[in-house]
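Take one protein record:
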Amino acid sequence: MLKLFDRIQQNRNIRIALVLCAGAVAVVGAVYLYFHNPYSYPLPCIFYSVTGLYCPGCGAGRACYSILHLEFADAFCYNPLMTILLPLIGLYIMARVFDWMVTGGNHIDRKISVRLLAWILGITLLFGILRNIPVYPFTLLAPGGLAQIL
């Protein structure tokens, strides 16, 4: 198994093929979500099913569906934090994949501030807590809550 990883690490063509395959899987997933209406057939959240509480990602499936249909206000209503962080996450993934594909290494993670990551984690946890407080204005953070005022 270690030899396989070494071979992948050393051969740029294999890395490019893996990235293209992963990209194809991502496109297939996006096409599926584009035609799979989560309003009719919702994607279940295990955390919500078990606890009855919204996790920081609840509403992300409907938000991604709305983004794919270029309905950004609807996406923001379902999960405002994810809608804001999604472009940053996408940029990170693209930079990281491109770096790995070209060099076979990881030169991106060293350039990201640990303080920034701690802030993002803290904001995500706070968002997860606040969206479960059953009092206005916190109810606006629940999936679809902002649709009341937008």
The mean pLDDT is 91.
